[in-house]
Amino acid sequence: MATFNxxxxxxxxxxxxxxxxxxxxxQEREAAAELKSSLKQVPxxxxxxxxxxxxxxxxxxxxxxxxxxSPPSAVKAGSRPSFDxxxxxxxxxxxxxxxxxxxxxxxxxxxxxxxxxxRERYTVWTNLNFKYLxxxxxxxxxxxxxxxxGPTCQxxxxxxxxxxxxAAEKGFTYTSRWEDPPVPFAAEPEYxxxxxxxxxxxxxxxxxxxxxLGYYMANQERLRIEYHNxxxxxxxxxxxxxxxxxxxxxxxxxxxxxxxxTE
Length: 263
Description:
Blueprint: H1 14-40, E1 44-52, E2 55-62, E3 95-106, E4 110-117, E5 120-126, E6 138-140, E7 144-149, E8 152-155, H2 157-169, E9 191-194, H3 203-218, H4 220-243, E10 251-255
Parallel strand pairs: 2-10, 3-7, 3-8
Antiparallel strand pairs: 1-2, 3-4, 4-5, 5-9, 6-7
Helix pairs in contact: 1-4
């Protein structure tokens, strides 16, 4: 999957996204041509050419490098580097934590989160749109560094209604995936955790949710812009792919003997 730089602080237009993709593709072609040219400039003892469909594969035996890269230093099994933490106060140490959840966004109006914590699952509903967190990989608070793992899917009520109708026309039943939150939300951002009566919810779960939603609210505009720009770039990349079908590329491979032959 292609990845793009979406950190532009401004909303990207379609023409800007198209121009950025063209620039990226031109840079990729230039880098590939430069690499191929540099490989061919190395003197070869032997060269073999194979035709594979419309592609040419060139195998070139060249001299081994004068100096081989040094192997990584051996680390004794079970040993760990030691650190002097005496100079640090406990308050200065940043805690590391992971957030694992799956988000379902319903028509951009509300989100259902299934949070995984210590082999337990907790259902959370919020009026925040979690589609804007799809690009998030990590974030920090004053005393914590979080890794965020939050795959997201989106439910469109119009498409669900069409699926229900088409299924009925063909004589079978389709159950809509649409769900309403268990309680009405106020205008202000909020969340509700649906807990079973006989199961206590760890305070850590609330801590992680508060930190995540606090980060969301503090960076909502930037997250929205990054999401918009990512969609613009992906659409531009798809337009480019359709307009420029991939062609077979020639391959140049240099190889050399790295050790003396065994007698």
